[in-house]
Design a protein that fits this description.
Length: 478
């Protein structure tokens, strides 16, 4: 029996069979009403609800504002994700770890897809990475979204997995299912509709080869989206701007009126509009008692002030600087002001690096496990990230030169300067080539020559001192 996503399983107790595990894990897949689906819509800007103050306005302007968007949620997530870039992996005391990890990384195209893993976790709260061997026995790292995978943690553990299942759908609507436990791997091929008709094989790793990337800071709650507290404020912004657009249609132009004029009616008793009002129309009346006037146009500045306040709330809740939202941006902020304003965002990004960095280290250790390498237990491995702080080039290089005066190794300075591990490796080879070239040039340069007359002469022995003889003569005289 297949359990729909987000529903309950058909059995009670801990799963023991592959079919039970699949039913249980499939029930944990986010369903259509899951909040993660809503946050994805807000990130993509598909959350527009046409929130008019009155229903009659929605009937009148639904087609006019159907494609209207005023969404900050995408920018809020991207402001964090654009600063999350993995640079390398280091294992103290062992050479070659970074080179091997870089090979795993490049083979799986993670220079591009690693940011997608971070992005999915920031939006929905969770994303996943699967590590498995390809046909050549090389480790392959595959990112998976949270709507296609579910995991079960061991009781009392925050990172050890007891089981994980991946549910894939091809272009023809056929589902393929893979279940991993520490003991076995269970696969249901494409086109097989019953989960009890899969194939069972032992797990060569002895580990569940899945690593969750969780956007979380609390121990007692589930992973959450960065948009949890931003969505209500975004809805308020949409409502306020929609009211402003409606007011611009009805009250932004001065409304004219006339008094003392007899009202004409049609054959059905309905009043007839006496004038065709327009910006290029001149109103006149033959009745000397007729008087013309106009109402004051609506002031839309009140809406602008309210939207600015709501956007400032968004900046506070998301810890994204106000200049990202262009709030009160009459003057461009200076470099020092931008650095100061981005301190909260940088601190937020560094906190994400702690959680995501630990997950990437588990991914690399799984790659070494696939290769049967002893570094599969290298728990002292660390993830090196690119600097999340934006600074001017002059400030950055000046700070590095000061670190050089403290005898900081050059490779560390290169890494802090933003060069990738591949570039640093190229620098090493270039330095060797430069040293060899300098030695060759030194051999070709003229060598110092000695005078031939001086070559035949024996070295002159320096004269010895006579202080001892002088002292002996003084004693004899006494």
């Amino acid at each position: 029996m297949i359990v729909p996503p987000g529903s309950h399983t058909a059995f009670i107790g801990k799963p023991t069979k592959p079919g039970e595990w699949l039913s249980y894990l499939y029930g944990k897949i986010p369903g259509p009403g899951d909040p993660s689906r809503l946050y994805s819509q807000y990130y993509e800007g598909e959350q527009q609800k046409l929130a008019f103050s009155q229903m009659r306005y929605k009937a009148a302007f639904a087609s006019v504002f159907e494609q209207w968007r005023d969404n900050f949620c995408g920018m809020i997530v991207d402001a964090t994700n654009e600063r999350l870039h993995v640079d390398s992996f280091r294992l103290p005391g062992q050479e070659g770890t970074d080179a091997d990890a870089r090979t795993f990384w490049q083979r799986s195209c993670l220079d591009a897809y690693s940011t997608s893993v971070h992005l999915e976790a920031l939006i929905t709260g969770t994303s996943y990475v699967v590590v498995w061997a390809d046909k050549d026995g090389e480790p392959t790292i595959t990112p998976v979204s949270s709507d296609r995978m579910a995991v079960c943690y061991k009781a009392g553990s925050l990172w050890e997995l007891e089981a994980a299942a991946r549910f894939e759908m091809d272009a023809w609507g056929r589902q393929q299912v893979t279940l991993w436990t520490e003991e076995y791997v269970y696969e249901v091929a494409y086109g097989v509709t019953e989960w009890d008709q899969g194939t069972l094989a032992p797990n060569p790793l002895g580990l569940v080869p899945v690593v969750p990337f969780e956007n979380r800071t609390r121990l007692s709650s589930k992973p959450f989206s960065d948009l949890v507290n931003c969505v209500p404020i975004q809805d308020a912004v949409n409502k306020t701007v929609m009211d402003a657009l409606t007011a611009s249609e009805f009250a932004a132009f001065p409304q004219r009126f006339v008094t003392g004029l007899e009202i004409q009616e049609d054959s059905h008793g309905n009043p007839i509009e006496p004038f065709n009002v327009g910006s290029d129309k001149l109103l006149q009346a033959e009745d000397p008692n007729a008087k013309f006037g106009s109402f004051e146009a609506a002031n839309l500045q009140n809406y602008v002030t309210l939207v600015d306040m709501l956007v400032q709330h968004l900046a506070t809740v998301s810890r994204v600087p106000s200049h990202y939202f262009l709030v009160n941006s009459s003057n461009t902020p200076s470099g020092e002001a931008i650095i100061s304003a981005e301190a909260g965002l940088v601190a937020k990004v560094r906190e994400k690096m702690l959680h995501f960095g630990e997950a990437w280290e588990r991914v690399i250790r799984l790659c070494f496990a696939v290769k049967r390498d002893k570094r599969k237990d290298a728990f002292e491995m660390e993830t090196r990230w690119r600097d999340p702080e934006y600074r001017t080039e002059a400030q950055h290089i000046d700070a590095l030169l000061k670190l050089k005066q403290l005898n900081v190794p050059e490779e560390v300075l290169w890494s802090e300067a933003g060069f990738s591990s591949t570039q640093i490796q190229s620098f090493r080879e270039m330095r060797k080539d430069d040293a060899k070239a300098a030695a060759e040039v030194q051999k070709l340069a003229p060598q110092p020559q000695m005078n031939p007359a001086q070559q035949d002469q024996k070295p002159v022995k320096p004269p010895q001192g006579n202080s001892g003889n002088a002292n002996r003569k003084i004693n004899e005289a006494k």
